[in-house]
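Batch job 17 of 40 flagged for manual review because the log was empty.
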Amino acid sequence: MNKSWQHWYAGIPLLAAMMMTGINAQAAAFANEDFSISGVGSANAVIAGVYDASAASYNPAAIGWSEGLTIQVNSNGRYRNNSLKTPTAVLPNLGGAADAVSTHITWMPHSSNFGLGASLTTPFHNSTMWSPGMPTAADSWLRVRRATLDLVYVASSTLSIAHGVDFYQAKAVMQQGAASFAGKDKSGFGAHVSVSWKMAPLWRMGVMLRKAPRLQLSDKNALLRLDLPDQMGVGIAHDTADALRWELDAEWSRWSAVKDMSVQNNNGTTLMAVPTSLRDTVNIRAGLTWLWRRDSAFRFGYAYDQGANKKAAFQPTVSDQAGHRLSVGFGGDMFNMMLDIAYSYTFHSTQKVTGVYAGSYRDRGETLGVSLSKTF
C-alpha cells in the first residue's frame, strides 16, 4: 500500500467520529455563522481569504487552493444574557444559548483540477423562554442541521468555482399557553454556488450564494411551515507586507421570507399565532490575520450585525436586534495538527419597543471555542 493511501485509511476513524457531531448557535435572527474557530477569531470575515477546511462552509471554491485531505472539528462554549425591562419588572429569557460543534472535510488531490468538500453544521438555532412573565409569547426551541457536499473545479490559476447541495434536518418544540408542538422535518434540500478569484497579486475575492428551502415540520396533529432565508456573501481579502491579511465582507440574508412561525393543525386551524414580520439584513465584517511565524497566526475581527426584528413589530420568540461583535483568536501547529482558539463578545444595542411586547430589550453574548485540524 502506498503512502498516500495509508494517510487516507489513517483518517477514516477520525472522519467517522467527527461526522457524528452537530452544532448549535445563534447570530442575526436565529442564524449561526460560527462555523469554525478560525472564523470566530476573524468575526467570520473569511469569505475571500479562508484557507483552512472551514472553506467547506464559508466558501467551498477556496478549497481549490489547498492540497491533500484535511479534517477539522470545532467546539464552542457559549453564553447569552437576554432580558426585557418593563416598568414593573425585568424578565429574563431563560432559553439561553447552546454550545456548538461542527465538522469540515476537504480533499484536493495533488495536481488535480477537481476537489471535494463536505461539512456538518447547524446554521440555524433559536431558544427563547419568556414565560411565565410573558405568557402570550411563544416559547421556542428550534434546531436546523445542515450537511453539505461540494464539487470544486479549478478553472485556471486565478479562478476556482464550486457547486454544492445542502441537506437539512430540523426539529422544533414550541409552547404558547395551553397549546404545544413538537415536530420534525428530515427532508429539506437546498443548493449553493461559490467563486474564489485571485483578481490581482495579493488580492482575492470570494462570492457565496445559497438558496434555502421551505421546511415543513410536523407532528401527528400539527404543522409548522418555515421558509429559511436565502443568503449571499461577498468578500475581498488583501495581503500586505509578508505577514498581514485583512478582509472586508458583506452578507445579505432574506429574512423577509420568514413571515411567521405559526403552527396549524391538520385542518388548517391556527393553534399558535406567531407572526414574525422580519426584515432583510446586511451584516458587515472586518478581519485581520497576522502570520507572525510559520503555521502560526493571530486573528482579530469586528462585525456589525443588523437586527432582523422590526421595532414596530418586535417578536420576542425570535428576539433579535442589531449588535456589535469584537473577536480575537490564535492558531498554531501542535504535534502536526493545527490548534485554534478564539473568543468573541457581542454587544447588542438596547431596543425600546412599544405595542404588545413593550419594554427595553437587552442582549449580550460571549463565545469561547477551540478546534483541531489534521491534513493527511
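Reviewer: the log was empty due to a logging misconfiguration, but the result itself is present. Residues 1-26 have pLDDT under 50 and may be disordered. Unflagging and moving on to job 18.
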